[in-house]
Amino acid sequence: MEALFQQFVKEKTYLANVTPATLRHYKLSFTCFRKHYKGELPTKGDLNLWVIGMKESGLPTVSCNTYIPPYLYFSPFIESV
Fold it and tell me: What is the DSSP code string of the chain?
């Protein structure tokens, strides 16, 4: 999954011209995702498991809500590959 995420970042960098701040946010969200989700290739249903894992670990709701949108951008990319 790491290689797919790196490909996603490259496409966002060079094809979508996202800002460096957006890329940092994507990377931070991905790090959080990997911390709370131990599977390999996630599906849309895995988002629920990830959110539950974040909440069970005591992460505040506002932080969870910050990490979710980048995952939503990444999940269609996974399905298209």
Answer: -HHHHHHHHHHHHHTS---HHHHHHHHHHHHHHHHH---SS--TTHHHHHHHHHHHTT--HHHHHHHHHHHHHHHHHHHH-
Single-letter residue type at 50: W
In order along the chain (81 residues), what is the average pLDDT of each group of 10 residues? 89 94 91 79 77 90 88 77 61
For the chain, domain boundaries: 43-81
Tokens standing for residue 5: 């995420």
Task: Report pLDDT for 81.
Answer: 61
